Amino acid sequence: MRRLIVSNVMSLDGCFESSDKKLDWFVPDEQFFAYSREMLRSVDAILFGRVTYELMAAYWPFAAKDEIADKMNGLPKIVFSKTLKSADWNNTRLVRENAGEEIVRLKQEPGKDMVILGSAALASSLLQLDLIDEYRVILSPVLLGAGNPLFQGIRQRLAFKLHQTKLLSSGVVVLYYQKA
What we know:
The strands form two sheets. Strands 5-4-3-6-1-7-10-9 form an eight-stranded mixed beta sheet. Strands 2-8 form a two-stranded antiparallel sheet. It is of the alpha/beta class. It has one domain (4-179): 3-Layer(aba) Sandwich (Dihydrofolate Reductase, subunit A). A hairpin with a 5-residue loop joins β9 and β10 (173-179). α1 (30-41) packs parallel to α3. 27% of the residues lie in helices and 32% in strands.
């Protein structure tokens, strides 16, 4: 059975983006790019919500050609959105209804793991449906003071078990969690 992984950056005060919706506070280094290459090699599908999809689709087709860009552009992508009119980025499919049912179906298919990048609202909704197998929090050593929380709309207590950590020289820590 395929697993669904979420990989998201977060500030020390729990935000995935600043209040002005910027990510300029997260500065990737070579070790982060190594993490990204390794993660993208382990999956065969990338999942997005609308906002993250639009940001990624505006960037990756025009990015410098390297392994990460090749994977971002080449891997199958699934966008979950009720409002997006079309999804034209290479190898992208749009799902308009019932993300939970679609994830259950995708997890039954043969293949590698799938990953949600960004897309905090989508990730949180699937987390509450118990469809996330691993949550990777990429903790950046910065306080934003205000911003949008990584975990949105959680209605009940959810317990996790830390099963791996990866410390990067920048002070960023990748925390690998599974449901307890």
